[in-house]
TrEMBL record:
Residues 1-23 form the signal peptide. It is found in: Cell inner membrane; Cell membrane. GO terms for molecular function: amino acid:sodium symporter activity. This is Alanine glycine permease. It comes from Leucothrix arctica. InterPro entries: Na/Ala_symport. Keywords: Cell inner membrane, Cell membrane, Membrane, Signal, Symport, Transmembrane, Transmembrane helix, Transport. Its main location: membrane. Belongs to the alanine or glycine:cation symporter (AGCS) (TC 2.A.25) family.
Length: 516
């Protein structure tokens, strides 16, 4: 009898689902169990691993505000890459659009890889465009005021250069198995490219540490947090009891597994459909808010620019706006973290630079477009004030209240958007975690199925418990990835410059042809 992992998993989920329905009827006892588990998990991560969180997010004071050094680490890298590559995010923006549209793809050629440029872009976007664009911007504006928006845009533009560097290297140093499956990302270019430059020992250390942090980040921030917030939104919009989280978790886990069991082609085929629709839904709501309040658009932009540079107040002044803008942009688009390079490595191409150019569109879409639209909605609602009152609100509640100020029905549409964002983020991060897992433990069907099952179990756990410290830990793991990744990028960026010069010279000479 042939082993069918999908059928086995869905049977397991059906069993747990029926059990969870029974448990939901015992709401009181179940809630007590949930609380006990939550406290135990939170205590473990807080008491034993809190030092790691404090180390990664070590902050220096600016008056009454603290600035995490990890944000500065990412910002400085983005600034250096921008200068080193001559503001490539501006000079090659149109070329990047043309590549995504397939104008440099020969329809008759066969290249190694698993997905198209557009599919690689949507897969990477599905991992970055998520709850941070909804809840994170609400946090930034609640603390830093409208001026934080300006600095989000600045950092988003600079971060485009970081994505370009890491994703070019991801394709250049990827591994293609005999089956055609691709494995790539920082683990591979840190190990192999650093070895080429005579720093094999350092490269292996950076690669292993990156992989470990990637697995932890995938199971936490890329998984449990998404499931947890998705259920919280169901509770907020539709009144689904919080103690029914296990049912939400089981359903989401089954959906996630049905996609990720098929590998990168399956994930890409879903993200290329889900990402445009979820972006259209969310941006459509934002456009309706803006059009309905056209008279407030001018004052909103004035508030954004004035708040970016004025020193009025403490948390709402220049430093507060600057810090919150930097934090939200770096936390949202993950430029320099290295995660996106894993997805982009699977692209069908023989020219690494093409995918590096495609990837620089991510921070633009994620931060410059989507985060800015969220900020505009919140700012407009705050300027109107009636019937909106954002006092005391932050995160997703502030964003939700801002949309509802224009139309109450947006609460339900926003809930759908949150579910789509959470689902797409989970399937992308499952791929990131899987590639880090197989890098450490080897390729193979058993190894891969084990991680995919583990990932889906954590979906159920995430939707079920209430936690704080475990999410702080997984966030720290995700940004610890950037420490090891960026150290390598500084050594390897000359390789990328050589690739860029070669590619552009061949485009100008006509050796690389434009199609369509």
């Amino acid at each position: 009898m042939k082993f069918n992992p999908t059928k086995v998993f869905l049977m397991m989920m059906a069993f747990f689902s029926s059990s969870s329905l029974w448990a939901a009827e015992e709401a009181s006892g179940f809630s007590e169990t949930i609380t006990a588990v939550s406290v135990g998990v939170d205590t473990f991560f807080g008491d034993y691993l809190g030092w790691f969180v404090n180390l990664i997010f070590y902050s220096v004071p600016f008056g009454d505000i603290k600035f995490p050094l990890i944000v500065g680490w990412l910002f400085v890298a983005a600034f250096i890459f921008t200068l080193y590559f001559g503001f490539i995010q501006l000079s090659k923006f149109k070329l990047a659009i043309d590549i995504v549209r397939g104008k440099f793809t020969d329809p008759n050629s066969k290249h190694e890889g698993e997905v198209s440029h557009f599919q690689a872009l949507t897969t990477a976007l599905s991992g970055t465009v998520g709850l941070g664009n909804i809840a994170g911007v609400g946090v930034a504006l609640a603390i830093g005021g409208p001026g934080a928006t300006f600095w989000m845009i600045v950092v988003g533009l600079l971060g485009m250069a970081s994505k370009f560097v890491e994703c070019t290297l991801g394709v250049k140093y990827r591994t293609v198995l005999p089956s055609g499956v691709v494995s790539g990302g920082p683990m591979y270019y840190l190990r192999d490219a650093m070895a080429e430059r005579g720093m094999g020992g350092l490269g292996k250390f950076l690669a292993v540490m990156f992989a470990l942090m990637c697995i932890l980040g995938a199971l936490g921030g890329g998984n449990m947090f998404q499931a947890n917030q998705a259920h919280a939104m169901l509770n907020y919009a539709f009144g689904v009891p919080m103690e029914y989280g296990i049912i939400t978790g089981v359903v989401m886990a089954a959906l996630v597994f049905s996609v990720i069991v098929g590998g990168m082609p399956s994930i890409a085929s879903v993200t290329e459909k889900v990402v445009p629709w979820m972006a259209a839904l969310y941006l459509g709501m934002a456009v309706i808010v803006i059009v309905s309040n056209l008279s407030m658009v001018g004052p909103a932009f004035s508030a954004i620019f004035d708040g970016a540079f004025t020193g009025a107040g403490v948390a709402g002044g220049f430093i507060g706006a600057l810090i919150q803008g930097l934090k939200r942009a770096t936390f949202s688009n993950e430029a320099g973290v290295g995660s996106a390079a894993i997805a982009h490595s699977a692209v069908k191409t023989k020219e690494p630079i093409t995918e590096g150019l495609v990837s620089l569109l991510e921070p633009f879409i994620d931060t410059v477009v989507i985060c800015t639209m969220t900020a505009l909605v919140i700012t407009i609602a705050g300027l109107n004030m009636a019937p909106f009152d954002g006092a005391g609100l932050t995160g997703v509640t502030l964003t939700a209240a801002s949309f509802e100020a224009t139309a109450g029905i947006f609460k339900y549409f926003l809930a759908v958007a949150v579910l789509m964002f959470a689902f797409s983020t989970m399937i992308s991060w499952s791929y990131y975690g899987l590639k880090a897992w197989t890098f450490l433990f080897g390729e193979g069907n058993v190894t891969e199925i084990l991680f995919k099952l583990l990932f889906c179990v954590f979906v159920v756990v995430g939707a079920t418990i209430k936690f704080g410290a475990v999410i702080d830990f997984s966030d720290a793991a995700i940004f610890a990835m950037s420490i090891f990744n960026i150290i390598g990028l500084y050594f390897l960026m000359p390789i990328v410059k050589t690739e860029l010069k070669s590619f552009m010279s061949r485009v100008k000479s006509g050796e690389i042809k434009r199609f369509k």
